[in-house]
Write a structure and sequence with these properties.
- 2 copies of one chain form a homodimer.
- Chain A contains 9 helices and 12 strands.
- By secondary structure, chain A is of the alpha+beta class.
- The first copy, chain A, has 2 domains: 135 residues, PurM-like, N-terminal domain (60s Ribosomal Protein L30, Chain: A); 162 residues, PurM-like C-terminal domain (Phosphoribosyl-aminoimidazole Synthetase, Chain A, domain 2, Alpha-Beta Complex).
- The interface between A and B is large, with 68 and 69 residues.
Chain lengths: 325, 325
């Protein structure tokens, strides 16, 4: 039978202590570790079965890797360098050792992929499966990026296709067999990648005025990026400029595609603003460094969001995933 | 209706940004903060409804304060100075604003009592109520205390009465009206206090060889402190020397008292070992500083635990609360 000591032993074996980093290992009351920068960047993010994920669609390995990616995405949105993570596990009765092994294989894959180390965790019983991931990073050259510091006139960019995450989940819910192109979209849902390198690059740019990651939906996260309506800042997006999927074989209705792109969430792309006068320089710099970025609109003084589609402006509601109780 | 933005606003109002500490406030993707020491001490600890607590016995204020205390106790066991905490909340449907207000009043009380700051959090829906608390501390003079570094002959100490936590919970489960003395015991369960000052003091002592906090039961945590049986280290405890409750008015059976003291858990007292040759010096130092400590036994080479009671040695099983799935 699984008990917490099994997990502790597994962690010690799979995530060996790196004596150069940690004065103490896993398995004590608390972890002791160093971060070179004097500024620590911390975030925590949870995945709850039935709310954020369904084990019908994700293997335990994918779940763990995905939970880590989603949490790390918040560090990327600050322009920080991920270093460590912790995992608090809430496990239902009859969780098996096989399941735990797979889950920790996923965490191990995440450690390797993102070059981060597991520094702590906790195990509790609960009614359903939940993961709470804490992530720690450092800032380089004392620079990091916040939300809400954009100015009217700044240009708005994203780092990749928007909408694929929620389209992928939709496909999983509706079908059992998928075309090659559909599988690509599904993999964006199952295995999002936190934009570590791009985040670090963007975090160092003085003319980047604000940044966030798209978690809950483009329009909702754009509102969060701009700050409250009382800030006076609004934004106009150009529908045709937003990078979207081009690989749905079965036709998706326009309204469905718009919903996925504008409020679908689960994208984990970065959304940020650049001073207009530096846009050309910025885009050249990205090209030189082989980073793909997409200009999708601009900050305006309307306090509201609008979308220009086919040359016509329509009002855009700030919508997406919000926990309501 | 409660939604996550209500909680974000509440947190911003109640836990205002201290610009001297944080370059950025709560409400961004991640928190950025400084810790003076170059060593960060981190731990996370969860409280799950139905497993760790029952809202029949705790108000939301008590629950939050208690969850923070329990998590901070792990930092105390390292001899670290608590600085910051984060709270990941898992809330069931129909959680009310009134409940959330009370919960955050409890966290606020904890901030004031422990001089710590809230630096982040997360809100998710879930089937039952759960709190996952992350705590951050720093070590002074580069010194901190681990488990498993005791030597045969070291003396074993605790910082306060053992068993009251679980006796208090028992009383709550069995009765509705309590004597004054019973209320004192119950308050040890409801409102444990992390041993911050004592932990810091003990953490600086070179002749203190190992330390842990008693969470899951004296005998179980003693085993954890000593390390595995393969270490060869065992311990002998003197029953009469263990500080125990003296304020149960209704008589408690000896077997019941023994169970509470030896495997009850929920004590959050520190359990540590001191080099025998420094014991006199140590006890004098504690007296001088007005710290109460109690010598309860010694580390031996039997690999097992024993208890001397009424002059007779009996074998002591390492027992306590373990999550089993």
């Amino acid at each position: 039978m699984l008990d917490e000591s099994y997990i502790e032993e597994l962690v010690k074996k799979k995530f060996p202590l790196k004596s150069t980093i940690f004065p103490t290992g896993i398995g004590d009351d608390a972890a002791v570790f160093k971060i070179k920068s004097d500024k620590i960047v911390f975030s925590c993010d949870s995945q709850v079965e039935g709310i954020h994920f369904d084990l019908k669609y994700l293997t335990p390995e994918q779940l763990a890797f995905r939970a880590l990616s989603v949490a790390l995405s918040d560090l990327c949105a600050m322009g920080a360098k991920p270093k460590f993570f912790s995992n608090s596990l809430f496990l239902p009765k009859r969780t098996s050792k096989a399941f735990i092994n797979k889950l920790f294989n996923g965490f191990k894959n995440g450690c390797n992929y993102y070059s981060v180390d597991l520094v702590g965790g906790n195990v509790s019983m609960s009614e359903s499966l939940m993961l709470d991931i804490g992530v720690f990073g450092e800032v380089l050259n004392d620079r990091f990026k916040e939300r809400k510091a954009s100015r009217v006139g700044d240009l708005i960019y994203v780092t990749g296709k928007i909408g694929d995450g929620s389209l992928g989940l939709d496909l999983l819910r509706k079908k059992k067999r998928f075309t090659f192109k559909e599988k690509l979209i599904i993999s964006k849902y199952k295995s999002p990648r936190a934009r570590v390198k791009l985040g670090l690059f963007l975090g160092q740019l003085k003319f980047l005025t604000s940044m966030i990651d798209i978690t809950d939906g483009l329009s909702l996260d754009l509102r969060r990026l701009l700050g409250p309506i009382s800030s006076g800042r609004g934004a106009t997006l150009i529908w045709e400029d937003i990078p979207k999927t081009d690989c749905i074989s079965s036709p998706v209705s326009t309204s469905k595609l718009m919903k996925s792109v504008l409020s679908g969430g689960d994208d984990y792309e970065l959304l940020f603003t650049i001073k207009k006068t530096r846009a050309k320089h910025f885009e050249d710099l990205c090209k030189k460094n082989n980073f793909k970025v997409f200009r999708i609109g601009f900050v305006d003084s309307t306090a509201n969001l609008s979308l220009i589609r086919g040359g016509r402006a329509i009002s855009l509601k700030s919508q997406g995933f919000v926990h309501r109780f």
